[in-house]
Amino acid sequence: MTDVLGDNLTTSQLGFGGMALTPVYGDADPAESLATLDHALDIGVTFIDTANVYGGGANEELISKVVAKRRSEVTLATKFGISGNPAAGERATRGDRAYVLQCVDESLGRLNTDVIDLYYLHRLDPNTPIEETVGAMAELVAAGKVRHLGLSEVTADELLRAQAIHPIAAVQSEWSIWSRDVEAKVVPTAAELGVGFVPYSPLGRGFLTGTVDATTLGKNDFRRQIPRFADGAIDTNQAAVDTVRSVADAVGATPAQVSLAWLRYKGEQFGLSVVPIPGTRRAKRIDENVASLSVVLDTAQLATLDGVAASVAGARSSDATWVSSGRE
């Protein structure tokens, strides 16, 4: 159950998005979170993704408890570059060399490891040339602190400029049945360069699973900041869930499994490695996600799913420049 991203980075075919283990979607139980991480490794989901900004470092510290006892099993990814708190609407970024060197040491300490397998620039700093940021990240590879480099929410041009400085293993951006803007430029460029793609929120921040009632989200739930979850959009977007569910019923799968399988087929279509990183707090959801690897969709079903995004209401971010499509 392995895949190969760019720069010969081998990962599991599905990864695990650690942000869900931080209370951005409501309260999280640390004991349950650790049990879920252990279960993920037990069944072969070994690509674990976190970031220094999740929980102000608490997410890295939580994941370190599993890393400490099972480091050899884990392909460990973390990120830097967001200096504010996105959950509170703060979108400050930094990418200068001094900050790169500071952040990696802080993450290594919180993760209690001596090397990070994949180190991402979480968001571009508009005041620092990407060449400077990636150049500093390349120093980390030379120093043995990082094995591979990644970029999150970059445009095709930014990816090309970064690749000219150092091989990029992966681009991480939102990509799902209801978020397809990356297919216009970023995905084709990644395929051309041999860079892998790591879709975050492949289940539409849970909405595409059909298990989320947006009208009952807690007051601290991060999704309240996303236009697609606003009162004026959510009823319209229920149609997306209904379409996914109709295909799922036809193939004997769940909406989550169909959503992940759709991304697998998209990777084949564009000719690049695609490793989604759905997040969850519950072990049973990991079993469900892994079963998506055996879901088969025919041409008509794929066409039906391809039509969903055109009718989705609301942007995927309240700040267009925060995502790559707003800067293309």
From TrEMBL:
**The entry's keywords:** Oxidoreductase
Superkingdom of the organism of origin:
Bacteria
Coiled coil regions, renumbered to chain: none
Instruction: Answer yes or no on keyword Nucleus.
Output: no
Which InterPro entries did the record assign?
A: AKR, Aldo-Keto_reductase, NAD(P)_OxRdtase_dom_sf, NADP_OxRdtase_dom
- Report whether Chloroplast shows up as a keyword of the record: no
Q: Which Pfam families match?
A: Aldo_ket_red (PF00248)
**GO CC terms in record:** cytoplasm
Question: Where's the NADP-dependent oxidoreductase domain?
Answer: 14-308
Under SUPFAM superfamilies, the record lists: NAD(P)-linked oxidoreductase
Protein name (database record)? Aldo/keto reductase
Upper taxonomic classification of the species?
Bacteria, Bacillati, Actinomycetota, Actinomycetes, Mycobacteriales
